[in-house]
Design a protein that fits this description.
With 375 residues, this protein is of the alpha/beta class. It has two domains: 241 residues, Aspartate Aminotransferase, domain 2, CATH 3.40.640; 125 residues, Aspartate Aminotransferase, domain 1, CATH 3.90.1150.10. It is built from 13 helices and 14 strands. The strands form four sheets. Strands 1-9-8-5-4-2-3 form a seven-stranded mixed β-sheet, with helices on both faces. A three-stranded antiparallel β-sheet has the order 12-13-14, with helices on one face. Strands 6-7 form a two-stranded antiparallel ribbon.
Length: 375
């Protein structure tokens, strides 16, 4: 049996090696490393895939979140409602810009923002909502957009883990990241659509916002050496765009492979007491960036150790929620104020999830999990 990894990037590369190698060689031979033809072509191809008017590449997913807030013109002291059960980048950029993160709880099944708690957290200072589409499926965007309309708020979708998933609602079937004012994603290598370094992008259907995003990404400038606003230097380089162009045609295939692995996990674990398989929300497809179990009874860490002892890696996303991190904790959101988030942080465990998992590997993983509960 091949060694099991959380994500098998080498195995994935081997299947598309000719396309990737040719694309990288083309960039190197052209020496168009920054803002070259590969970047523009990738932006156009991803926009066509997402059915969105504008895709703007940037340096990474964290930059994408920061640029979104800057393009929307949010000011220090403005409040932004988001999840605490997420990677810290979502909150980090708010603090860096002097914005005030307001944490809402999540739903115990999907791990995504609880619309009822989001509505409760709105104040006159609230300016935006950042729903995080966690682990590969969409938050309840119909509810988020309704709250935004009622209170006049912006919506920035954090689609760093959900690219390629679909949301079905009153406006038909739409891709993750294309429903709010701005959507953002990361192309970190382990993402479903990942490059071979850092990369990110923003999506929008608003022409004016697209112009502002491009300007912010380019030092606040539309014309070289003339700077209209304070900006940043955040670019998707041509080598990364070339890799992403090679991978994009396979993105739906990757999602099918991940769903097939998830189905094997589901079947194996469905009857194990104290183990909850991931819930699916009926209005969203799932692209399984992570396959995340809930382990009850305080057994999560023991299961993780058992798996690792049998050659199965497992990860905890996220052991300490943002509102309890030293950098962000405070009297407004003390321990105990987000009960679902805090419970999940003690129960979640993610199993290997990759486009390259084979039957032998899946059999070993599932048998190892079962042996822990049946001893």
């Amino acid at each position: 049996m091949k060694p099991i990894q959380m994500v098998d990037l080498v195995g994935q590369y081997e299947k598309i090696k000719p396309e990737v190698d040719a694309a990288l060689a083309e960039v190197i031979q052209s020496a168009a490393f920054i803002n070259g033809p590969q970047v523009k072509a990738f932006e156009q191809e991803l926009a066509a895939y997402l059915k969105v008017k504008h895709v703007i590449g940037c340096g990474n997913g964290t930059d994408a979140l920061q640029v979104a807030m800057m393009a929307l013109g949010l000011k220090p002291g403005d409040e932004v409602i988001t999840a605490s059960f997420t990677f810290v980048a979502t909150v980090e950029v708010l603090a860096l810009l002097g914005l005030v993160p307001v944490f809402a709880d999540v739903l115990p099944g999907t791990f995504n923002l609880d619309p009822a708690d989001v509505a409760r957290k709105v104040t006159p200072r609230t300016k935006a909502i950042v729903p995080v589409h966690l682990f590969g499926q969409n938050a309840d965007m119909d509810a988020m957009l309704a709250i935004a309309r009622e209170y006049g708020l912006h919506v920035v979708e954090d689609a760093c883990q959900s690219i390629g998933s679909d949301h079905s609602g009153p406006n038909g079937r739409r891709k993750s990241g294309t429903m709010g004012d701005i959507g953002v994603t990361s192309f970190f290598p382990s993402k479903n659509l990942g490059c071979y370094g850092d990369g990110g992008a923003l999506f929008t259907n608003d022409d004016d916002l697209a112009m502002k995003i491009r300007r912010v990404c380019n030092h606040g400038s539309r014309q070289r050496y003339y700077h209209e606003v304070v900006g940043v230097n955040s670019r998707l380089d041509s080598l990364q765009a070339a890799v992403l162009r090679a991978k994009l045609p396979h993105l739906d295939e990757y999602a099918r492979a991940r769903n097939a692995a998830a189905a094997v996990y589901d079947e194996a674990f469905k009857d194990i007491r104290g183990l909850a398989i991931p819930a699916r929300w009926q209005q969203s497809t799932h692209v399984f960036h992570q396959y995340t179990l809930r382990v009850a009874g305080g057994k999560r860490d023991a299961l993780k150790k058992h798996l690792e002892g049998h050659g199965v890696p497992a990860m905890v996303y996220y052991p300490v929620p943002c509102h309890l991190q030293d950098a962000y904790k405070g009297p407004r959101c003390p321990e105990g104020s987000l009960p679902v988030t805090e419970q999940l942080s003690g129960e979640v465990l993610s199993l290997p999830m990759s486009t390259e998992l084979d039957d032998e590997q899946l059999g070993h993983i599932t048998a190892t999990v079962k042996s822990f509960f049946h001893n």
